[in-house]
Amino acid sequence: MRNVANMFVLIRRRGRLIRILMSVRDRESDSKRTAAASETNESLPAFLDENHDASWSANLEEERYTEDRETLIEHALAAINRTDADYHVNLVTHSNHGTPEDYLEEPIRDHYPDAETSVIDQCGCGGYVYRVQQ
């Protein structure tokens, strides 16, 4: 019985290690994309200036995102990247784009395959709160 318990602990540790390694790889990739965005003189929102070591919300419903879904997706991925493990980020999206599952789910899965996502609520303005936890 003790060997089974030890094996279970090793499997859990291996799973955590794989998630950490994937997270590091994804963060490096996202950092390159964020750097590329700044090279094009696109000013980054203040929430991308620092890592967040607690759950938080990223405001992606500003005017700049109204007609620019590509930047919204890029900044959403960067916000996830800036969120420490075991915490979540609420991506508050602009109403012009509809439900975030339609356009954020696939890019999030591509970069963060183990992330948990859910629509929390639709705002009175028509936008959505989309929660992502790695």
Provide a compact summary of the structure.
With 134 residues, the chain is of the alpha+beta class. The chain has three helices and four strands; from the N terminus they run αβαβαββ. 24% of the residues are buried.
Describe this structure as you would to a colleague.
The chain is of the alpha+beta class and 134 residues long. It has a single domain, classed as Rossmann fold, CATH 3.40.50. Helix 1 packs across helix 2 and helix 2 packs across helix 3. The chain has a four-stranded mixed sheet, with helices on one face. The chain is built from three helices and four strands, in the order αβαβαββ. Residues 7-11 and 33-41 have low confidence and may be disordered. Strand 3 (116-122) and strand 4 (128-133) form a beta hairpin.
The CATH class, by name, is: Alpha Beta
**CATH fold assignment:** Rossmann fold
* CATH architecture annotation name: 3-Layer(aba) Sandwich
Biggest beta sheet summary: 4 strands, mixed
Number of helices: 3
Mean pLDDT: 79
Structural class: alpha+beta
- Helix percent band: 40-55%
List keywords for this structure.
Rossmann fold, alpha+beta, globular, four-stranded mixed beta sheet, 134 residues
